[in-house]
Each structure stands twice: as C-alpha cells, then as structure tokens.
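Worked problem 6 (solution included).
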Amino acid sequence: MSILIGKKMGMTSLTSKEGVVTPVTAVKVEPCEVTQIKTVETDGYSAIVVGASSKKEGKVSPQKYKRYAEYRIDDVSGFEKGSLLSAENFTEEDLLRVTGTSIGKGFAGAIKRWNFSRGPQSHGGKYTRAIGGTSGATNPGRVMPGKKMPGHMGARKTTLSRLKVCKVDSENGVLFVKGSLPGANNGTLVLRKQS
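Solution. The predicted structure is:
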C-alpha cells in the first residue's frame, strides 16, 4: 500500500503508438516521508502519517512539513518511520484513489448548484430561476434541515476512485493520471494505491 502527496500541475494528453489520445492530469509528487506510525496499542487504530514538502532535501525539519496525510491500513509492518516514498512506488496501470479540494464557485443559485429546472418564461412568469416554495404553511411550517437552496458551491473535499496511472516519470517525480482530478492547478492531492 502506498500513499503520496502531490501537486496538480494541469491537464494534457498522451498519444499511444496506435494513435489513441488519452486525456491525463499531471501530478507533481513532492518528497514524502513517513513521519508517524500509529498502532492499535498506542492510538487505538493502525495508520501511517506522511509528510510532504516542496523544499530541497536536508533543508526541512520534521516539524516543518507543508502538508500531512494520514492513511488507515490494517498492517503497518511494511513501513518504517523516516522511510521515503516517491513516484517509483507506482507503476503504469495502477489504480488510484485521489482526494483533493474541488474548485470553489462562490455563491450559486439552485439551478447551477443543484441542477433545478427553470420556471415558465412566458405568459407573465416572473420566477424563472427561483426555487419556489421551501416549506408547508402549517405542517411542518418551517424549512427542514438539508433543504436544497442557493448557497456556497464547491471548495469541498472530493475523492475519485479507480483512476488509472497512464505514465510514470520517475526522474521528475510526475505521475500522469487518466482523466481530470479535483481542484485547481497547484492544489494539493493525496494519492492512494487501490487493489
């Protein structure tokens, strides 16, 4: 099991020898180190904590990592504190679970945020993009929690599963993952290998 912290560089495409074009997202994998190993005896569950920094090796103390990621696993015997993880831990055709923060859209109406339908746009209709009624007059007589309404859209933790690694550039520490990944360019992504 491998876990890495990377930075989204942007999208591009790869062309195979047969001429098949595949859209991919380039992810720059930063130097990652296992900073902590949690066990059932000490913490109540087993997991590894990985720290990443974009600074050069030897110039970062263990307390000054920019990003951390924790991954729960059943068996932590294959990891040692201080061991380094890199793009070489992944190979082509590996499947990944990628977690990131989606792009923030700001305040959005119900049509854009929840895919509501528009109201009538003829015969004097004035509520073409309004959400309509939000609750009953007598019962329940209030807006129920969880009601889909206008509000802040995006900027949420998002996870995509079973994404294929199309190419590994070990020299530059770059992974090319099929499809689009959550977040804006230069955003942080956590990559986990799936079985």
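Discussion: Residues 135 and 142 are 6 Å apart (CA to CA).
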